Amino acid sequence: MKAVVTGGAGFIGSHLCDHLIAQGHEVIALDDLSTGSESNLDQLSGNPNFELVKGSILDKALVGAVVGEADTVFHLAAAVGVHTIVDKPLESLRVNLHGTENVVEAAVRRGARYLVASTSEVYGKNDADGLTEDADRILGSPLKSRWSYAAAKGLDELVAYVHGGDSGLPCVITRFFNIVGPRQTGRYGMVVPRFVEQALCGEPITVHGDGTQRRCFGSVFDVVPALPLLLDTPAAHNRAVNLGGLEEVSVLDLAARVIELTGSASELRFVPYEEAYGEGYEDMRRRMPDTSLAAELVGYTPTRRLDDIIL
Ligand code: NAD
Asked: Which ligand 1 atom minimizes the distance to the CA of 244?
């Protein structure tokens, strides 16, 4: 496989680069290093099968050139993180919408199969038991303050579907639910690395809201191998597939586990959502994926437990 990984210097993207290289593929990572970091790819420097191209997915000519030799494109680059999205909704919209258009169009011109990373946020504020992939729930009631991210990702899915249908090229959309693991940074609002960093530094652990909101955290090591497998699976083509963990915890439980596992003396500090993210911010009470489609398609079975993920 000659693969391009956009967002390859980011958290999930860099693990995907590692995985593809370990499988003997050639990989070009395209990243503007806005939230990603070159150091995430240190282990691949000097590898003749790997190249990092620094640049933006908004640069159409560059995207075309990078995708020019590829047979497979994994599109993970995006403006991410609650702070980025809430503070810069327009920029987030531009990158997530036009950037995706550039990448998918380049893949189609080249005749390359492609995977587009989407998000649980496209389900909006649905917090019913076990979200499934039903199309009629997409953007059902998006959170106002996250609208630019959720809306752009929803439209990204449409861009992927429409081009996939028109071109007949294999395309897969993956909806990630709170993926965590090494190299994820707490800087952009991600709760697990933030809690771990605060616990290790002996700082107060800042719980946004009352901490009773519930999440499932999925390990990047469970999720990444599923990505090339999905592209190899015809039954997955032109479909959206949930990927995430299955162990549900409240944010308060998470904080307690982090304190216990790190042996920290940190105390909890409760921060109202308005203070953390500005007026009008709301959060999902519960976010839990139904991953049975991924299990059926590629045998996806999350094996890492929350404690393994935190440590
Ligand atoms: P990340 O911030 O670590 O990765 C995103 C990467 O994209 C970064 O390396 C960043 O520098 C790069 N990037 C941003 N704008 C760019 C641009 N204009 N041109 C080129 N590169 C650009 O975040 P991540 O968690 O690894 O996210 C990867 C993908 O998965 C994203 O599409 C994100 O929306 C999606 N996702 C992640 C999660 C999660 O839980 N981590 C959940 C839902 C969706």
From this structure: 40
Cβ–Cβ under 8 Å, residues 161 and 241: no
Q: What is the pLDDT of residues 84-124, one digit of tens each?
A: 777 787 888 899 999 999 999 999 999 999 999 999 988 87
- The two structure tokens encoding residue 61: 């000519």
In what helix (H) or strand (E) does residue 44 lie, and over which residues does it extend? Answer: none
- Please report the ipTM that was assigned to this predicted complex: 0.99
Q: Which numbered atom of ligand 1 lies nearest the CA of 183?
A: 3
Determine the distance separating the centroid of ligand 1 and the alpha carbon of 267, expressed in angstroms.
31
> 195-246 pLDDT, tens per residue?
999 999 999 999 999 999 999 999 999 999 999 999 999 999 999 999 999 9
Instruction: Count the domains in the chain.
Output: 1
Pairing of strands 113-119, 179-180: unpaired
**Which sequence positions are flagged as catalytic?**
149
- Counting from 1 in the atom list of ligand 1, the atom nearest the Cα of 12 is 26
Cα–Cα distance, 152 to 157 (Å, whole number):
9
Q: Is the pLDDT higher at 124 or at 56?
A: 56
Does any domain span residue 262?
no
Residue-number span of the structural domain to which 225 is assigned: 2-179+219-246+288-303
Considering the domain boundaries, does residue 233 fall inside one? yes
| Mean pLDDT within 48-66 | 98
**3-state SS class at 190:** coil
State residue 179's pLDDT score.
95
Q: How confident is the model at residue 151 (pLDDT cuts 50, 70, 90)?
A: confident
Pocket of ligand 1 (CB under 6 A): 7, 9-13, 30-36, 56-58, 76-80, 95, 99, 117, 119, 176, 178-179
The reply to whether 191 falls in a domain is no
CB 176 within 8 A of CB 12: yes
Whether 223 is covered by a domain: the verdict is yes
Can you give the CATH number for the domain in which 117 is found? 3.40.50.720
Cβ 145 vs Cβ 280: under 8 Å? yes
